[in-house]
Specification:
Elements: H1 2-13, H2 22-72, H3 79-93, H4 98-110, H5 120-123, H6 131-138, H7 140-149, H8 155-162, H9 184-198, H10 210-219, H11 227-239, H12 251-255
Helix pairs in contact: 3-4, 3-9, 3-11, 4-8, 4-9, 7-8
Bound molecules: fe (ii) ion.
Fe (ii) ion (FE2) binds next to loops.
Amino acid sequence: VAFAVFRLGYALFGIELQPVPDELLLSITLGLVAYLWVRQMKMFQDLDRSATALQDSHVKTISALVKTVEAKDAYTQGHSDRVRDVAVEIGKKMGLDVQSLAVVSRAAMLHDIGKLGIQDAILHKKEPLTDTEWQILRDHPRRTDEILSTLGFLDRESRIALLHHERWDGKGYAVGLKNHEIPVESCILAVADCFDAMNSRRPYRERLPRETVMAELDKGRGSQHRPAVVDALFDVLREQPEMWARGLSSSDQQTSRPVA
Ligand SMILES: [Fe+2]
């Protein structure tokens, strides 16, 4: 650019300037190009940061919605938070990279958002569900997928949540995948979800004893659950026994434990 300006001035006005060394012109030109490039990169980075911040705030808004719904129900208070924490610890133990851990974290927070449209009478029913009610309940992963897909930037999370009730032997729902067809992140979410469900009270039962939870997870190794994920959870529980204490028990019902 500097070279062009210099040439133009010379051609139009016949200005006799001292010849500028080529090396200097080249340095000026390269400096200018570098400056423009850095400025452009900074603009792109700022735009990227704004887009990420906007996406984060969308996720936080939806998470707040999930927590509000959970808070209404004494049996699911803080469930998504606890599932997220356990799932992330399992993911770390299995060596997932930082990006995948973030995806698992978001998917765990939002995995049951599809239950929002299901009547409380079904969700909180103490008696066995009828076939029709089971069908409605088993459709919630698809509803979650539909809701998250509309956002357009949670595709991985949406897929992981869709598959969080699949089983390693292929007998799960809502799609019916098996073994390695199921993404490892969904297998992690499934184990974390089951762990919290058993480690917390339910309308129809008290919180299960630790030995029973361990035995049930062990029984599901290779049938319901991906074996490596169960192993990873057992390692986490051995190293962080405080994870057990976070589950809801009947004493939390009276004190109405705040959502973590
Ligand atoms: Fe679920």
